[in-house]
Design brief:
Length: 218
Amino acid sequence: MAQQDTEQQAVAGGVLPVDDEGFVIDTEETEEREAAYRARGTARPITVVGNPVLHRETKDVTVFDAELAQLVDDMFASQRAAEGVGLAANQIGVDKKVFVYDCPDDEGVRHVGVVCNPVLDELPSERRVLDDSNEGCLSVPTAYAELARPDYAVVRGQDEKGNPIVVRGTGYFARCLQHETDHLYGYLYIDRLSKRERKDALRQMAEGTPRYETVPND
C-alpha cells in the first residue's frame, strides 16, 4: 500500500502500526486522527458518581461494527467537549468495555487511541514505581486527590475494528490507562482513596460547578 493510502487509513480510524516490541504507535498523526474521530461524532453529557452504570463492570465488546465506530466518534467528541484526556464508554452512559484517550505523557508526547476490552498487565516488582500525583475524573467533576499508581502501564485489548493491540504508557499517560481501565470494571478513582479522602473529593464536587454538561442522578 502506498504511503499516502496508509496515512489516509490512519486518519480515517484504521489500524495503528506497531513498533519492534509489538506496542501500538499511537503518537503519529495525532491531530489528524483525533479531529477525524471528533468531526464524525456528537458530544454527549457525562455521567457522574452515583449513576449505576459507573459502579458495575461493563459488558465486553463482541461486535465491531458501525454502531461501535459511531460510539467511538461520539466519545472523542464528548472527551474534547469536557476537556478530558481519557473517556470510558460508561462515562456517557454506555455499558460497553471501550475507552478512548488523547493524553500526553510526562515528556509532553501526545498519545491518541482506542482500546476495547482492556486488561492491565500485572507488573513485575521492579517496574512498580509508584507516583502519587493528583488525579481527577470527568465523572467526579471539580474534585482532585493524590492517588499512588505505578508510573508505567501496559494494557492489552482490541482496537475499534477488533484487532489485538498492546498499549504502553509512562507517567501521566500510564495513569490515564489505569484510570480508564478501572472505569470499565466499575471503579472510580475515589474508590481507591481512604474514606476521609473520598469524603473530601465528594465535598469538592458538591461545592464546584462542572464546566461541561452532566447527567443528573435521579
